[in-house]
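Pilot study result, target chain (393 residues):
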Amino acid sequence: MTHEATTELRKFVAPEFVFGPGAARLAGRYARNLRVKKALVVTGPNLIRLGWAGQVIDSLREAGAPTTIFADVSPNPRDYEVMAGAEVYRREGCDAIVAVGGGSPMDCAKAIGIVCANNRHVLEFEGVDNVEKPGPPLICVPTTSGTGAEVSQFAIINDTKRKVKIAIVSKTVIPDAALVDPLPTMTMDQELTAHTGLDALTHAIEAYVSNAHSPVTDLFAIRAVELVRDHLVAAIRGPDDPDARSGMMFASLYAGLAFSNAILGAVHAMAHSLGGFLDLPHGQCNAILLDHVVGYNYASAPDRYADIGRVLGARIEPDMPQDEQKDAVIASLRRLKKEAGVNQTLSDLGVRPNELSELSAKAINDPCMITNPRQPTVEDIRSLYEAACRFQG
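Predicted structure:
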């Protein structure tokens, strides 16, 4: 693997986290440690139906922390949902937030917190380091194995007027505690398991080839790829397999720690544009775009992509021409996607040719594009969208 030393300063930020079966039930203990008087629980209707939100709420109440539930969160959380959640937080006299769910409830919870602390509209925080005051205490309980939001300094929110997902990147949105419990992921269906698992893979790969990577992020990123390789297909085929579920939860956690500090790249920039404009599933968009972007970027980080390929089973010899190496790496990614059952195109999701210009114009301005190893033009991005629309692997 590539582990070159660096003479540049590097920082690494992460919250306190607890990993393991039953971690979700520690919410009350952490709330008590944080002296929480009343918590806003941000979750989704499905998590209430499945009982995972209820377990966390019971833990909070047993510790003497009453709760108010805010469950009006869409899969791509909207700006107006954040503002509605902030209004509930203020009206109910809450002093802390507990997020239970996948990336959407966690991102919404982060955004609600900084809105309440700064008395500003959520869209005013777009970009990097634009949050003056940190939000109230935040505890995250992830229920999917993919987003890494429970440990990241990212919050992704849909600007409904401009129809684009904005990235809020700030240390102030890092949770105070992450309770990483693999048990809730056992109720994920096969499709959600595949999409979130490939989202974790994309996080890891983009962090590893990012122009802001470091030796520390490299360790987490490459280990996350190994864990996805070893556990994703098993988790899809055997949802009750505790080893597979724990492995994928570790993969998501490690990838989250990597990308939170190394940032991401063109796959996420393009997926954010798709999610904001067409309200498409984030993990699925990443999975469809990943191999196309790897092909485009390859020459700008060949050794790093070769590392990824070897982990995924690609046979790469030292004297192999770069084009053949690239083909082998892409083939290993497509093989994993096929095993995970993800073989759709963007056209299958409803993306149309007349939408590609606007999608490309929005993607190129996404903050994640800054750390992509190769800086594309709008035309390059459009070509990648076109390839992802028509490809049949």
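One observation from the pilot: Residues 16-186 form a domain with the Rossmann fold fold (CATH 3.40.50.1970). A full batch analysis is planned for the follow-on phase.
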